[in-house]
Structure formats: structure tokens, C-alpha cells
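Lab notebook, bench 4. We co-purified these components, and the gel suggests they stay together. Before we commit to crystallization screens, I want a quick structural picture of the whole thing.
Request: model the full complex, all chains together.
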Amino acid sequence: MTPFELVEPASLGEAIALLDPEDAGVRPIAGGTALMLMMKAGVFRPTRLVSLRKLARLNARIAATSDGALTIGAMTPLALVERSPEVARIVPVIPRAMRRLSNIRVRNVATIGGNLAHGDPHMDLPPLLIALNAEVKVVGANGAQAAERMIAVEALFTGYFETVLAKNELIAELRIPPQGRSRAAYLKVTTGSAEDWPALGVAVALESEGSAVKSARVVVSAATEKATRLKGVERLLAGATVDEKMFARAGDAAAEEAECMTDVRGSAAYKRELTRVYVGRALRQALNSDGATR
Amino acid sequence: MATSSGQVGTPKDAKVGGAKVGSQIGRSLPRLEGRDKVTGRAEYTHTMRLPGMLYAKIFRSTVAHGRIKSIDTSAAKRVPGVYRIITAEDIRTVIPAPYYGPAFHDQPILAVDKVHFVGEPVAVALAADPHVAEEAAQLIVAEYEELPAVFDEVEAAANNTLVHEELKPAGTFADLKHLKGRKGTNVALDFKLRRGDVDKAFAAAAHVFEHTFHTQKVLHLALEPFASIADWNERGVTIYSGSQGPSFVRTEIARLLGWPENRVRIKVPYLGGGFGAKLYIKMEALATALSMIVRRPVKVALTMEEQFYTITRHPSTFVIKTGVDASGRITARKCEVYWNGGAYADVGPRVTQKSGFTASGPYDIDNVWVDSYALYTNLPPAGALRGFGIPQLVWAYESHTDMIARALKLDPLEFRRKNLLREGRPQATGQIVRDAKLDAVLERVAERLNWGKPLARGNGALRRGRGIAVAIKAVISPTTSVANLTIAADGSTTLYCGTVDMGQGSDTAMAQIAGEVLDVPAESVRIVPRDTDVTPYDMGTLGSRSLFHMGHAVRLAAEEAREKIKAMAREVGEPEGSNIPLPDLFKKKFGMQAGNIVGTGTYKPDYVPPDPATGLTDKVTPFWMCAASGAEVEVDTETGHVRITRLITAVDCGRPVNPKIVETQISGAVLMQLGFTMFEKMHIDAGQVTNASLADYKIPAILDVPQAMENETVDSHLSTGPFGAKGVGETATFCVSPAIANAIEDACGVRLTALPLTPEAVFRALRAQANKPLADDA
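Here is the predicted assembly.
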């Protein structure tokens, strides 16, 4: 690691001015858990890191609105999200997923904004947030003016460690819409140590009425280049009757649709088979009111 | 000096100062250094700094085999703050023949003319600021003329692609001398064992089975990476190093410098783990050469990632063939083992030979043929890793044993019982087996597994099964340990021994042995930190040898001191059996609080080298290590995931000196081998390790601990051991892999013959069994 400049701006305008849309050596740093790994490996060699920890706009905070929506400040550590009563009440699937997401030391430091902005397809929260139809508020420069825009988490990722964010844009806030009667599940599938990055992540959120699925969102990650919605599977599920046959059909369709890649955690062919099995299991878990997991 | 060899009895009811001996052995005394470690006070080389010290950062080869055409250091030299860039040319100005190694003098301090593996050190950047040195090292550019490379051990044995032009045995080991100057070969050692007539026995056998097994490349990954600091001047050199073998380092550095050993001082603080990685020369020669060149202290401290390019465990291919008679007796076994030693021999030839003694397993077999080959390849070097080759062998022979039992429709436990090597019978080498509790460890595990009673087999996609394995190891021999012990005039005891406490609790055990003899509490015994100027010779902290060898040396030193106390008492006119307090005794002798009693002990067991033609000898090892493991697993047949619901291990470690430490040695060894069994693997592409970091190479963590892990020792007393004890550092690693693979077959009918047992491997085997092999993408 070579010497670099570390700045800690107190205002958002200042922070954005310190970022450089053209210089890949200048990056914002939140919890730093991912960035430090890249710096140690020499993959990222910064000239300047812009710390976000003094920015009030991005503060750690979790708020629920009366209609059941959640807003979470970008700098909120994952551990706070994990332990928040509001989160547990509105989207219990998130604290459930958190238990096997990295480890307690990382969760105490890593932030929800950094988790999304990093664009790492092996992260566990992005597929889940996509399934929950979450969006992020992004702040950036528009000439001399600060500009804000909302981006669906689904639209955030463009490729392997790539996002739509400009180098001088920051995620300020995460918004999770009211979940109504939707039920969700996330399954992390590892093929090495239980603490390894997933070989496959599957997130599903669905609404059902009686024995029929009204609508479903199905997302796979880790096995694919980026967290990806399987829209073909979702179409298949809409209106389908909930039974074992449906789980199997959905799994087959998911294996067909997901573009799995080979890496040290498994071959593409094997990850397709995992997708086939785990999409069915995730659906079963989401629909299972006692939330039992296997 | 008290010297002993071979048979040593246990002192019974010996008395010192009137008190009964017997209180220190068998105490679960908490580790003496534990408090210093958890409060951050313990010293480690990795965090040490000397005044005026420079940091070295290594530039490494990017090709697996190549001739160095040029090294361009110009950009690196321009980095502000860089002190100097060093290549092999500079090293040779201070050490003309810069090659080291315990078995072969084959490893250059920095690559000379050629590189032999991806990651081999080629040049070094030196700076007072480690970040500057790192920046500069990244700017060094080398050009290579690439040469053909060989990576697989069986391919290497064909000698079509050569790693080295000529073999250079070190001369340390008599059984390697015949290899000197040999050309045209990658075989660094070929060990042979011939007992009976296997061909005749195979011809007469009712059944003959042959299988081939593979193990993958893994590594030690001590949480404190390799670190050495050298401080050289014309009068001497002091090296601070995280080394498991300071005496060897001293000898080898003295040889490289052409100096007597007393000008070389090795100081070893605590180690953050070793597991066999930190033996022999690692960073010490480089640090010394750099310090000689710049005449300042130089520190070489590797990153976690660089450990992947330093020393690893041997991958292996084991072709095993067994003949069985109509009654289920094994009549013949032929073992061909290929050890992938990587680019430099390190201690690989010793692994090849010493593990070869027991390659045919813990069975009583009249006809045995073993060929064990150490191979050079263009991979990072391989050496000793918690078992000295035995876990690779047991993986093969205990999987094979189960496969035979199943093919013959014999109960796997019964089949083992029928063929087990019993007390008083000759082992394959010819040595008569004594004090080896093979039957006890096997029976204990079988009992805990409820062997023979029905097992809930699971339902739906989940299938359950159980498996068992048993193993034996000969401890590395012959080796020597020396210990000194002093008693001050106030009666306090100080122990000087070179055994390195790298987390295994040896300081505590040695203090218990000294305390037992002298009848003082172990926690009152001061252990002097390892320093070759002070602590006497020890062959090395390796192969579970320390408790036995150094334990005897410490016992002998303490006994000598005890005899001197008695003599002093006689001399000052005390009656026989007097229990005069030691301070009073010293005062009586010297007239004031003055003087010392010094005891010393040397231990080297009897050994007869194996006959070069047959590998046979009746004194191959001073003791046998025995282990058995049993596993219960649950296989998810839809995905191949294996959940280990129970993992049981029983070991024979003689009489446990410190039961609590023994328990942690067993659980630590089991979990380490569990990682090597289930998922750890260095992925290698054209010689390049593609997962060389803890982000991509995971070791077991708390969530990987089996649902139930049961560890125990069987009742045992080694009649030739210090207070009945044997070493136990490695024992629990032996049987974990085959026990789990055997349980997987029991659960779902598929047999895996290569480690690791990943979910994908299980899944593919299940699909192949169902005649629907998983097709890969084109």
C-alpha cells in the first residue's frame, strides 16, 4: 500500500467537489471493508480517499414511515440494520439474511451504502434488496448544483463490480417500499467454508392469494456477473398455483435463464444445478409461514 | 552430562526434599504464556522493529519456468525513499554459493539465471518505509525466456520436462548421497520397501483390488506470516525469526557464511502458528544476505498472500493394490506414491522416505512393496505440514480398505479388526510393534459410533451414513534434543530448551516435566525464550517429536540437577533423605545466597537406518502414533452438500502430560484436516495460484465445526516415553479425510477418490452414478 491522501469533508458539496469524475484513483470510502482488501491486494491504488463518515446527510439512521416504508442512511453499519426493531418488523427477511452475511466484525463496520455502491456480485444484500423493490437516493453534481436522483437497486448494477454511479456520485439513502403482504426469502449457498462468499445467492419476494401466486420477484447473484432478476421465472410464477410442481418448474426455468459463470467456487454447470434446486427452496421458504429453513 | 538412549523407565516414587513426586504430570495447567498472548504482551517477529532497520519487499517471478533475460530496476530505483534494489548478482558478492535447503542445496536466496515457479523471489526493494519498498518492488520489470514446465507429479516422473539440470543433495542425510550429481531426472528421492513377495501373493490371492487416489495442494496459513530480521556485522549475525528450528537455521546460515556456528545467533520469540511451514531456512538467508549487503538490520516479513508462494503441503498420487485371501486376510499390498514437491526439495525427500515406512497402513501384511517418489515440479515448494505426508497416505489406504470391504461384502470394521497390526507383531519395516494402541483407538471410535447398530438413514433428498478409519505413524528418527536447567540459590528453576512454542503449549508441558522431577509447581519454572546463544541444540519442533525427545532431555537435565542437590546436601553434612529447603542448602554450601546447580540432558533414541535395497530395519521409530476417526454425515443428494453431524477422534498419545492441551491439539488438528478434506485447495492455472488470499482461500471457521465433535485419548502408557508420554501434535489429522469419504459412500453410494470432497464433487459423482453425468459448458 502506497501513501495517499485521506480527506474527511464535513459537507456533501465539499465531498462531491473532492471526488473526481475522471480519476479512478480517487474514491469515496465508507466502512472500507471491501476497499481495504482491494488496496492490500494492489488491485486499487488510491491517490485520494474521500471519507464519508462526517457527512450528516448520509448518517446512520433507520426510519419507518406510517405506511410501512423504510429509509436507511447510507452510512448505517450493517450490524445496526441487523438489530433494528423497525427492520425486523417490516422486513424480517433482512435480519435473517444478515446472520450469515460476512462476520460480526465486518458487519459492525461495513455500511449499507458501501455494500451497494461496491457492485460486488457476491454481496448478499443487493439481490434481496432487488427482490424487495428497494431504491437508492443518489446525490451528485449537476454543474455547480448538487443534484439528486432515485435509482432502483435493480438498475444500479451494470456488470461485474460495475454500477451506473458516476465517480462523483454518492448513495445517500436506501428506501425499501412498504412490503404489504409480500413474503420474502434469501438463501446463501456456499461451496467451501460456511463463511466463504456465496457460490450462489437466491432472493425471492412474492405475494400469494389462497393457493395462487399473484406476483413474484426472483433474483440470483454470485453465480452470475451481477445480481440479476429472472423475469422469465417471474412471469411463469404469476398466477401459478402454489405446489411442489410449481417449485420444480420455477427451478428449471431459473436454471435455463440464469447466466452462471465458472470460478473457484464451482463450475457454471454445477451452479446452474444449484440454481435449479435453490430457487425452488427459496420459494418454498418464502411461502412457508413458519419460515423454517433447511 | 546425563545421556540416555532407548529404554528409559519412569521414576517411581522418587523423592526430592521429602515431597512425593507425581503431582505435575497429568495436570490441566493453563498455558503459561496464555495471559501474555491474550493481553497483547507476547513478542512476535512480525511486529518487531530494530533501530535503523530497512524493510525488504520481494519482486516475484510471473512465469513457472524460464531463463531470466533481464531485470530492469531503473523505475524502482527512482521511487523517492528507496534505499536499494537487490538481485541475485548482489547476493553473490556476499554469499558466492547462495543455495540452501535441508535435504538438497537447491534453493537460491534469489533466483539465479532461471526461475522455477510462479512466485519465486527474483529481486528485492529495500527502504526504511515498507510502503515505499512495496511501491518500488512493483516497478521492477523482468524479462524471461519461457521454458517448458511440468506441474503434475506423475507427468514429472516421466522426466520429459526437467525442473533442474542436476541434483544437489545437501549431504546432511546419508540416504540421499547416492543422488549427488544425478542428471536427467525430476526424482529427488526414490524410497523402496520390499517385504516378502507381493507378485507371488497377488497371484495366489482370491481377490485383488487396485485404486488410485489424489490429494490437492494446500498450505499451512499460519496467522503470523513468515518474518525474519537479520542484523549482521563482521563479528557476527543476529537473526530474529519466527522459526520452528533455530538450531538448523544456525547451522545452515553458518555454512552459507563459512563461519563457525558461535558467530550466528538465532532468537525466536513466540510464533503465531507454524504447522511445519517455519522449518529449515525460510526468510533467514535472504534477510542475512541483505543485511550483509547494506550493513543495516533488514526485515523480511511476508504478507498473508505471499505465504502461498513459500511452502505448501505435497499434492500426491497414490496407486494402491491389495491382495485378499478367501478368509478376508490381506496377503499383499503394493503402494506407489508420487509426491509433488514443487520447485525446491525443502524437506520433501524426508517426507517421501519417512512416510514410506507406513504407506501400507496399520495392518499386518506379510508381503509389502512400497515405491515412494519425491518429484520436482514447477510449483511452489512443498514440505512438512502437520503429519509429514501421513494424512495423504491414510486418505488413500483407508479409503481403499473400505472399498475392499464393501466389494467383498464384509463389514468395514470387521475387515479392519481382522487385519489390524497387533502388539508384538512386525510392522512392514520389520520393527516389532510395542505400545501402539491401534486396537483401542479403533474400538473406542466404533463404540462411540454405535457401529453395528442401525442408523437413521434419512429421507427424501437427505441421506445419512457413517464411516471409520484407523492409522499409524512412525515418528521421525533419529533426532537429538538437548536441555539445560539451572537452579538458583533461592531454589528457583530456569529451563533452557530449544523447543519452539508456536501455540502447541510445549513450554507448559516442558515446565510440567521439569516440575515433576524437581517436585516444584510447573508454573514456577521459568522457560528461557529460544536463543541459540543460550538455549542448547534441538533438531526442530516438528513431527510430534518434541514431547518425547525434548521431554526426555528435560527430564534428564532435571534428574541430573536433582542428583546434584542430593550431592550438595551430602557435602554439607545433611543426613540422607534430608528435606532441607533449597535456599538453606545453598546458604550452607556457599555461606550466602550464591551459586547455581546446573543440570543438562541429551536424548537421542536408538535407530538403525533402513537397508537401502529393502527399506527394512528393526529400529525405525522410537514410538508409534495411532489414531482412529469416525464420521456421521448427512448428504443433500440434490446439491452434493455434506453436513458432518458427528466427528469422533481417538488418539494414543501415551500418558497425557496436560490433558487440556492434548484436547486442544486433537480438536485443532481435526479442524485443520477438516478444511483440507472438505474445501481447501490452491487453485492453480499454468503454475499460477489463482486464489492466493484469505478472501478466496478459506480455512475452517466456527460455523464449519461439526455439529458434534468428540475427541479423546485412549488409556496408554509408553514404556519408553517421558512419564509414559508420546507426542500428539499431528495424530488427530490422520484419519479425518477417509472417515468422511467412507461415510459419504455409506450415505449415498458414491466414492470420491480425490480431495477435497466439495459439494460439486459429490454432486458429479451422484450424477455419474445415476448415469446422467453433469455436462460442462463447451
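Residues 73 and 140 of chain B are 5 Å apart (CA to CA). Worth comparing against the SEC data before the next meeting. Chain B touches chain A through 34 residues (CB under 8 Å).
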